[in-house]
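Bug #77: duplicate submission created two jobs. Keeping one. Sequence:
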Amino acid sequence: MIPPSALEPLSHGGDLDAARKLFPGAPEPFLDLSTGINPHPYPIPPFAPELFSQLPEPAALERLKALAAAFYGAPSAGNVVCAPGSQILVALSAGFVPPGRAIVLGPTYAEHARAAELAGHEVSTVSALEALGDGDLAIVVNPNNPDGRVVARQELLSLAARLRGRDGLLVVDEAFMDVGPSEEGLSSAVDCGNVVVLRSLGKSFGLAGLRLSFALAAPDLAARLGANLGPWPVSGVALAIGSRALADRRWIETTRISLAAAAARLNTMLQANGLEVVGGTALFRLVRTDEASLLFDRLGRAGIFVRRFAYEPQWLRFGLPGAEPEWQRLEAALRG
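Kept job's structure:
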């Protein structure tokens, strides 16, 4: 039976309606630092009206899959599934395993556990990677959100082998691997048969609203995922933008360098204001402070929205400011 809690919406970053309700007198516009999204998104050129008025062409879908395979290092386009966001891919993957025990390496993004619950699994969250080998479905976010923890590729391959002995499935969400240590990614190893890797254009490309994600899996599993999504899994606009973005290697490399510099700048700013940085990626920093609740409130009243965590009340996560006035605004608010 699906627990009622799995049917309830979860709290996430990026909810500015919630921010305005919490801080009704805050100055506008809100500076939203509650997500881990590149504040300088991939530039979108004008597109032909036909992309909106016609059904997406199968050839365009195949072209995007080939580009994604090349960019992420998957063996072939046959290993790639395009989807409108990663969450549906987690849910479908969880459904390929008979209801049993799902184990999530945490603390992490809460939606994955909920997707497993909706698929009928009994879900537990653990802090030790070794415990995931006892599950029928194992879920790892790598690099992790919100602390940036990275699990080594070899450890994940060993976990996959252990799960394979019990017909288990490993799902690895690599949404932040674009700015992580790429050598630890599993994209090239998905032909082992029981691994699904998730990638997305929502984070480093800054295109969260495009809702374009990819599952990388062995061809038979990829085919099953694709069949569940149907003949037009993503829009024609998503196909066009995704193909253009994944082929733009100059923008990708320049952006990776600039995000690393921005993260270092944010790190310095947070530490200079007495905050202990305990983790993160090049797209967000996680701090720990005994005054997290007071700081969240002070920033909110200044119109700056950061991410707090009910399960760890001493934590706050800061996304990257964008334009220089946003950096100055954050600096002023931190100084109080």
